[in-house]
Design goal:
By secondary structure, the protein is an alpha+beta fold. It is about 30% helix and about 25% strand. It has helices at about 1-15, 60-65, 75-85, 110-120, 160-165, 220-225, 235-250, and strands at about 50-55, 85, 90-95, 100, 130-135, 140-145, 150, 160, 175-185, 190-195, 210, 215-220. Keywords: Membrane, Signal, Transmembrane, Transmembrane helix.
Length: about 250
């Protein structure tokens, strides 16, 4: 009886520890040599973004009043963030000479075009060349990944795959079919469930990460069952050993 009980316990543990291939492999519906068009998107500027804006012209002196004083010999990313344009809760920035400008909801390209038009139309600069970048883009990855945390990025676009790569990929216990993406946009918070075993979301608005996105990977049943007191094999064996000891004592 004892032998059968032990075998049953070991069998249950092994079954819980095994993972099905269909629950582990990414993008199982992708066929060899298949192709899809890439649709690049321009992220919209959001509240609390920090913008780095430069204005150039053929005559540098004419553009100087529209640039922040960022010519420090110790100039670095942190200095630029401190001196950059912080988008207010009202979605605005205060730009030299031009004053308060509504920027939230625009892409960086749209803001570049808007500033160029204003500078040209008002006669400030005839040949303005404006460059706009968001310099505090970040994404947070939590849950069953190898290195959870908040990661900064400088690119205009990074994919969800890249964001997960920053966090060291999902652990073997992460549920690939139920990844939660939390996104804030224009004062609205959205919750999106994604299935990483399928490529169907590649053409959705969620392929590219937006600044301030949060990605949460939940643990599978095996990880939940082995948490707490059953956090490792040693704990399980100890409990089984105690059980066997008690059984033998009671049998006497």
């Amino acid at each position: 009886m004892l032998k059968k009980t032990l075998l049953l316990l070991v069998g249950i543990f092994i079954m819980q520890s095994c993972a099905s291939k269909k629950n582990i492999l990414y993008y199982q519906d992708i066929k060899d040599s298949s192709q899809n068009a890439i649709n690049y998107v321009s992220n919209e500027i959001q509240v609390n973004d920090i913008l780095y804006i430069t204005v150039d012209a053929l005559i540098p002196e004419s553009a100087k009043p529209f640039n922040l004083n960022l010519n420090s010999p110790t100039l670095n990313t942190q200095t630029i963030k401190i001196q950059g344009y912080l988008v207010s809760q009202q979605g605005t920035i205060t730009f030299p000479i031009l004053g308060e400008l509504k920027v939230a909801g625009k892409s960086t390209l749209e803001l570049q075009q808007m500033l160029t038009k204003i500078l040209n139309d008002r006669g400030y600069i005839n040949d303005a060349n404006v460059n706009v970048r968001v310099i505090n883009g970040k994404v947070t990855v939590l849950g069953e990944v190898n290195n959870p945390g908040t990661y900064s990025f400088d690119e205009q676009n990074i994919s969800l795959n890249q964001a997960i790569g920053y966090a060291g990929d999902l652990t073997i216990n992460g549920i690939r079919k139920d990844v939660l993406l939390i996104r804030e946009n224009n004062g609205t918070r959205s919750y999106i469930k994604l299935d990483l075993t399928s490529s169907s979301w590649f053409t959705s608005p969620y392929y590219y990460v937006k600044q301030n996105d949060v990605i949460i990977v939940n643990p599978n049943g095996a990880k939940v069952m082995t948490s707490g007191y059953l956090s490792n094999i040693g704990s399980i064996l100890s409990i089984m050993s105690i059980g066997v000891t008690l059984f033998l004592l009671l049998k006497k």
